Amino acid sequence: MIDKSNQQTFQRLRLNLRQLEVFLATARGGSTRAAADRIARSQSAASTSLADLEAALGVELFDRIGRRLLLNENGRALLPKAQALVEQAAEVQALFMDEHAAPLRVAASFTIGEYLLPSLIAQWTQQHPKSQVYLRIGNTSEVIAAVASFDVDIGFVEGSQTHADLVVRPWLDDEMAILAAPGHPLANLCATARQLADATWVLREQGSGTRQIADEWLLKNLDQVRVGFELGSTEAIKRVVAASDALGCLSRYAVAQSVQDRHLVELRTRLPKASRKLATVLHRDKRLGRATMDFLAHCSAAGPNSAR
User: Fold this and answer.
1) What per-residue confidence (pLDDT) applies to 306?
2) Is residue 31 within 8 Å of residue 61, measured between CB atoms?
3) 183: left (phi over 0), alpha (psi -120 to 50) or beta
4) Which domains, from first to last, does the chain contain?
5) Cα(258)–Cα(165) distance, rounded to whole angstroms?
6) Is the whole model's pTM more than 0.70, yes or no?
Protein backbone atom coordinates (compact mmCIF):
# COMPACT_ATOMS: atom_id res chain seq x y z
CA MET A 1 0.00 0.00 0.00
CA ILE A 2 1.28 3.52 -0.89
CA ASP A 3 0.77 6.03 1.89
CA LYS A 4 -0.84 9.39 1.12
CA SER A 5 2.38 11.39 1.36
CA ASN A 6 4.10 9.19 -1.24
CA GLN A 7 0.98 9.26 -3.43
CA GLN A 8 0.98 13.04 -3.34
CA THR A 9 4.66 13.06 -4.30
CA PHE A 10 3.95 10.87 -7.31
CA GLN A 11 1.07 13.10 -8.36
CA ARG A 12 3.21 16.24 -8.11
CA LEU A 13 6.06 14.72 -10.13
CA ARG A 14 5.59 16.24 -13.58
CA LEU A 15 9.11 15.93 -14.96
CA ASN A 16 10.19 13.22 -17.35
CA LEU A 17 13.52 12.05 -18.72
CA ARG A 18 12.74 13.21 -22.26
CA GLN A 19 12.32 16.79 -21.01
CA LEU A 20 15.62 16.61 -19.15
CA GLU A 21 17.33 15.15 -22.22
CA VAL A 22 16.07 18.09 -24.33
CA PHE A 23 17.19 20.54 -21.64
CA LEU A 24 20.73 19.11 -21.63
CA ALA A 25 20.95 19.08 -25.41
CA THR A 26 19.74 22.70 -25.55
CA ALA A 27 22.27 23.75 -22.93
CA ARG A 28 25.03 22.23 -25.05
CA GLY A 29 23.79 23.37 -28.44
CA GLY A 30 22.41 26.79 -27.55
CA SER A 31 19.09 26.32 -29.36
CA THR A 32 16.22 23.90 -29.66
CA ARG A 33 17.18 23.33 -33.30
CA ALA A 34 20.64 22.17 -32.24
CA ALA A 35 19.06 20.11 -29.46
CA ALA A 36 16.72 18.43 -31.93
CA ASP A 37 19.67 17.46 -34.13
CA ARG A 38 21.53 15.98 -31.13
CA ILE A 39 18.68 13.76 -29.94
CA ALA A 40 17.06 12.98 -33.30
CA ARG A 41 13.76 14.76 -32.68
CA SER A 42 11.92 17.50 -34.54
CA GLN A 43 12.53 21.12 -33.49
CA SER A 44 8.87 21.55 -32.59
CA ALA A 45 8.97 18.48 -30.33
CA ALA A 46 12.14 19.74 -28.66
CA SER A 47 10.61 23.20 -28.14
CA THR A 48 7.46 21.67 -26.67
CA SER A 49 9.44 19.46 -24.26
CA LEU A 50 11.51 22.42 -23.07
CA ALA A 51 8.40 24.57 -22.59
CA ASP A 52 6.71 21.76 -20.65
CA LEU A 53 9.77 21.43 -18.39
CA GLU A 54 9.85 25.14 -17.61
CA ALA A 55 6.09 25.11 -16.98
CA ALA A 56 6.42 22.13 -14.63
CA LEU A 57 9.20 23.85 -12.67
CA GLY A 58 7.55 27.25 -12.76
CA VAL A 59 10.76 29.03 -13.85
CA GLU A 60 12.61 29.86 -17.02
CA LEU A 61 15.87 27.99 -17.52
CA PHE A 62 17.38 30.03 -20.33
CA ASP A 63 17.86 33.66 -21.24
CA ARG A 64 16.64 34.26 -24.80
CA ILE A 65 19.27 36.31 -26.63
CA GLY A 66 18.10 36.58 -30.22
CA ARG A 67 17.93 33.01 -31.44
CA ARG A 68 20.33 31.85 -28.80
CA LEU A 69 19.35 30.16 -25.55
CA LEU A 70 21.82 30.71 -22.72
CA LEU A 71 21.53 29.06 -19.32
CA ASN A 72 20.40 31.41 -16.58
CA GLU A 73 20.93 30.82 -12.85
CA ASN A 74 17.98 28.41 -12.72
CA GLY A 75 19.34 26.43 -15.64
CA ARG A 76 22.81 26.31 -14.13
CA ALA A 77 21.35 24.96 -10.88
CA LEU A 78 19.43 22.27 -12.74
CA LEU A 79 22.25 21.23 -15.08
CA PRO A 80 24.29 18.87 -12.82
CA LYS A 81 21.21 17.19 -11.36
CA ALA A 82 19.65 16.69 -14.78
CA GLN A 83 22.92 15.28 -16.09
CA ALA A 84 23.13 12.79 -13.21
CA LEU A 85 19.53 11.65 -13.66
CA VAL A 86 19.87 11.10 -17.40
CA GLU A 87 23.15 9.21 -16.95
CA GLN A 88 21.61 6.95 -14.29
CA ALA A 89 18.64 6.26 -16.54
CA ALA A 90 21.02 5.32 -19.35
CA GLU A 91 22.82 2.92 -17.00
CA VAL A 92 19.54 1.27 -16.03
CA GLN A 93 18.57 0.88 -19.68
CA ALA A 94 21.97 -0.57 -20.60
CA LEU A 95 21.72 -2.98 -17.68
CA PHE A 96 18.88 -4.85 -19.34
CA MET A 97 19.74 -4.23 -22.98
CA ASP A 98 23.14 -5.93 -22.66
CA GLU A 99 22.99 -9.72 -22.51
CA HIS A 100 23.34 -11.05 -18.96
CA ALA A 101 24.34 -7.66 -17.58
CA ALA A 102 22.11 -7.94 -14.52
CA PRO A 103 23.98 -9.42 -11.52
CA LEU A 104 23.00 -12.97 -10.61
CA ARG A 105 22.73 -13.84 -6.90
CA VAL A 106 23.39 -17.48 -6.05
CA ALA A 107 23.43 -19.36 -2.75
CA ALA A 108 24.90 -22.84 -2.43
CA SER A 109 25.53 -25.39 0.30
CA PHE A 110 29.17 -26.07 1.14
CA THR A 111 29.88 -29.10 -1.03
CA ILE A 112 28.35 -27.48 -4.10
CA GLY A 113 29.63 -23.98 -3.41
CA GLU A 114 33.20 -25.08 -2.73
CA TYR A 115 33.69 -27.99 -5.12
CA LEU A 116 31.20 -27.76 -7.99
CA LEU A 117 30.10 -24.20 -8.69
CA PRO A 118 33.50 -22.44 -8.86
CA SER A 119 34.43 -24.08 -12.16
CA LEU A 120 30.91 -23.69 -13.52
CA ILE A 121 30.89 -19.98 -12.63
CA ALA A 122 34.34 -19.56 -14.21
CA GLN A 123 33.08 -21.17 -17.44
CA TRP A 124 29.96 -19.00 -17.34
CA THR A 125 31.85 -15.72 -16.94
CA GLN A 126 34.23 -16.66 -19.75
CA GLN A 127 31.23 -17.14 -22.04
CA HIS A 128 29.41 -14.07 -20.68
CA PRO A 129 32.05 -11.47 -19.71
CA LYS A 130 29.44 -8.86 -18.77
CA SER A 131 27.73 -11.17 -16.30
CA GLN A 132 28.40 -10.88 -12.58
CA VAL A 133 27.70 -13.80 -10.26
CA TYR A 134 27.58 -13.25 -6.50
CA LEU A 135 27.95 -16.57 -4.65
CA ARG A 136 26.92 -17.04 -1.02
CA ILE A 137 27.93 -20.31 0.68
CA GLY A 138 26.18 -21.78 3.73
CA ASN A 139 24.59 -25.00 4.89
CA THR A 140 21.44 -26.33 3.25
CA SER A 141 19.12 -24.71 5.80
CA GLU A 142 20.71 -21.31 5.20
CA VAL A 143 20.39 -21.66 1.42
CA ILE A 144 16.71 -22.60 1.74
CA ALA A 145 16.12 -19.53 3.93
CA ALA A 146 17.94 -17.22 1.47
CA VAL A 147 15.83 -18.36 -1.48
CA ALA A 148 12.60 -18.23 0.54
CA SER A 149 13.28 -14.61 1.57
CA PHE A 150 14.23 -13.52 -2.00
CA ASP A 151 17.79 -12.70 -0.84
CA VAL A 152 19.12 -14.72 -3.79
CA ASP A 153 17.81 -15.67 -7.23
CA ILE A 154 18.66 -19.36 -7.11
CA GLY A 155 19.92 -21.91 -4.61
CA PHE A 156 21.86 -25.16 -4.90
CA VAL A 157 21.47 -27.69 -2.09
CA GLU A 158 22.54 -31.20 -1.16
CA GLY A 159 19.79 -31.98 1.33
CA SER A 160 16.20 -33.09 0.86
CA GLN A 161 14.66 -30.21 2.78
CA THR A 162 11.53 -28.65 1.35
CA HIS A 163 9.66 -25.40 1.84
CA ALA A 164 6.10 -24.48 0.91
CA ASP A 165 7.23 -21.44 -1.12
CA LEU A 166 10.03 -23.20 -3.01
CA VAL A 167 10.42 -25.47 -6.02
CA VAL A 168 13.21 -28.05 -5.63
CA ARG A 169 14.46 -29.70 -8.83
CA PRO A 170 16.99 -32.57 -9.15
CA TRP A 171 20.34 -31.53 -10.57
CA LEU A 172 23.34 -33.89 -10.26
CA ASP A 173 23.86 -37.36 -8.77
CA ASP A 174 26.23 -37.61 -5.80
CA GLU A 175 27.53 -40.46 -3.67
CA MET A 176 28.88 -40.52 -0.14
CA ALA A 177 32.31 -41.87 0.75
CA ILE A 178 33.85 -42.97 4.06
CA LEU A 179 37.29 -41.47 4.55
CA ALA A 180 40.30 -42.27 6.70
CA ALA A 181 43.93 -41.28 7.02
CA PRO A 182 46.32 -43.33 4.83
CA GLY A 183 47.82 -44.92 7.95
CA HIS A 184 44.48 -45.86 9.52
CA PRO A 185 44.18 -49.53 10.62
CA LEU A 186 41.20 -49.96 8.28
CA ALA A 187 42.84 -48.28 5.28
CA ASN A 188 43.74 -51.51 3.49
CA LEU A 189 40.80 -53.61 4.67
CA CYS A 190 37.18 -54.06 3.74
CA ALA A 191 35.66 -52.56 6.89
CA THR A 192 32.82 -54.41 8.58
CA ALA A 193 29.76 -52.83 10.15
CA ARG A 194 31.15 -53.69 13.60
CA GLN A 195 34.46 -51.96 12.88
CA LEU A 196 32.67 -48.87 11.61
CA ALA A 197 30.34 -48.81 14.62
CA ASP A 198 33.33 -48.91 16.98
CA ALA A 199 35.09 -46.03 15.20
CA THR A 200 35.02 -42.33 16.09
CA TRP A 201 33.41 -40.14 13.43
CA VAL A 202 33.94 -36.56 12.27
CA LEU A 203 30.71 -35.26 10.74
CA ARG A 204 29.20 -32.02 9.53
CA GLU A 205 26.91 -29.95 11.75
CA GLN A 206 23.16 -30.40 12.06
CA GLY A 207 21.32 -28.55 9.27
CA SER A 208 23.89 -29.60 6.71
CA GLY A 209 22.70 -31.68 3.77
CA THR A 210 25.83 -33.80 4.06
CA ARG A 211 25.06 -34.50 7.72
CA GLN A 212 21.49 -35.41 6.87
CA ILE A 213 22.45 -38.08 4.33
CA ALA A 214 25.33 -39.33 6.52
CA ASP A 215 22.98 -39.81 9.47
CA GLU A 216 20.40 -41.62 7.33
CA TRP A 217 23.03 -43.91 5.82
CA LEU A 218 25.12 -44.71 8.87
CA LEU A 219 22.29 -45.04 11.42
CA LYS A 220 20.42 -47.38 9.09
CA ASN A 221 23.39 -49.72 8.72
CA LEU A 222 25.33 -49.45 11.98
CA ASP A 223 24.36 -50.28 15.55
CA GLN A 224 25.76 -46.94 16.69
CA VAL A 225 27.57 -43.88 15.37
CA ARG A 226 30.07 -42.42 17.81
CA VAL A 227 30.38 -38.75 16.81
CA GLY A 228 33.59 -37.30 18.16
CA PHE A 229 33.51 -34.00 16.25
CA GLU A 230 30.84 -31.91 14.57
CA LEU A 231 32.42 -29.33 12.25
CA GLY A 232 30.91 -26.67 10.01
CA SER A 233 33.59 -27.00 7.32
CA THR A 234 34.32 -29.82 4.90
CA GLU A 235 37.98 -28.82 4.73
CA ALA A 236 38.22 -28.94 8.53
CA ILE A 237 36.76 -32.45 8.53
CA LYS A 238 39.29 -33.63 5.97
CA ARG A 239 42.16 -32.20 8.02
CA VAL A 240 40.97 -33.81 11.26
CA VAL A 241 40.51 -37.18 9.54
CA ALA A 242 43.94 -36.97 7.93
CA ALA A 243 45.57 -36.25 11.30
CA SER A 244 43.70 -38.79 13.46
CA ASP A 245 42.12 -42.23 13.66
CA ALA A 246 38.62 -40.76 13.18
CA LEU A 247 36.55 -41.51 10.10
CA GLY A 248 34.72 -39.00 7.94
CA CYS A 249 31.68 -39.24 5.68
CA LEU A 250 31.64 -36.75 2.82
CA SER A 251 30.59 -36.29 -0.79
CA ARG A 252 32.82 -37.85 -3.45
CA TYR A 253 32.94 -34.43 -5.10
CA ALA A 254 34.43 -32.96 -1.93
CA VAL A 255 37.15 -35.59 -1.47
CA ALA A 256 38.14 -36.52 -5.01
CA GLN A 257 41.31 -34.41 -5.05
CA SER A 258 42.36 -35.40 -1.52
CA VAL A 259 41.99 -39.10 -2.36
CA GLN A 260 43.89 -38.64 -5.62
CA ASP A 261 46.71 -36.88 -3.76
CA ARG A 262 46.74 -39.65 -1.10
CA HIS A 263 46.06 -37.23 1.72
CA LEU A 264 43.01 -39.40 2.45
CA VAL A 265 41.88 -42.88 1.49
CA GLU A 266 38.35 -44.05 0.79
CA LEU A 267 37.51 -47.10 2.85
CA ARG A 268 36.10 -50.20 1.24
CA THR A 269 33.08 -51.36 3.21
CA ARG A 270 30.25 -53.86 3.05
CA LEU A 271 27.64 -51.15 3.40
CA PRO A 272 25.20 -50.45 0.56
CA LYS A 273 26.01 -47.35 -1.44
CA ALA A 274 24.57 -44.03 -0.31
CA SER A 275 23.57 -41.86 -3.26
CA ARG A 276 21.61 -38.64 -3.39
CA LYS A 277 20.46 -35.95 -5.77
CA LEU A 278 21.94 -32.49 -5.59
CA ALA A 279 19.20 -29.99 -6.39
CA THR A 280 18.41 -26.47 -7.51
CA VAL A 281 16.00 -24.36 -5.49
CA LEU A 282 13.77 -21.55 -6.82
CA HIS A 283 11.03 -19.47 -5.26
CA ARG A 284 7.74 -20.47 -6.87
CA ASP A 285 6.56 -16.84 -6.98
CA LYS A 286 9.74 -15.37 -8.46
CA ARG A 287 9.76 -14.40 -12.13
CA LEU A 288 13.04 -15.68 -13.52
CA GLY A 289 15.19 -13.28 -15.51
CA ARG A 290 17.11 -14.25 -18.59
CA ALA A 291 20.41 -14.52 -16.72
CA THR A 292 18.91 -16.91 -14.16
CA MET A 293 17.33 -19.15 -16.80
CA ASP A 294 20.49 -19.27 -18.90
CA PHE A 295 22.69 -19.94 -15.86
CA LEU A 296 20.41 -22.81 -14.83
CA ALA A 297 20.67 -24.26 -18.34
CA HIS A 298 24.45 -23.88 -18.21
CA CYS A 299 24.68 -25.77 -14.91
CA SER A 300 22.19 -28.43 -16.01
CA ALA A 301 24.23 -29.15 -19.12
CA ALA A 302 27.33 -29.82 -17.01
CA GLY A 303 27.95 -33.45 -16.21
CA PRO A 304 29.95 -34.60 -13.19
CA ASN A 305 33.26 -34.44 -15.05
CA SER A 306 32.84 -30.86 -16.28
CA ALA A 307 31.50 -29.71 -12.93
CA ARG A 308 34.57 -30.74 -11.00
Assistant:
1) 43
2) no
3) alpha
4) 4-97 (1.10.10.10), 104-171+277-307 (3.40.190.10), 173-276 (3.40.190.290)
5) 38
6) no
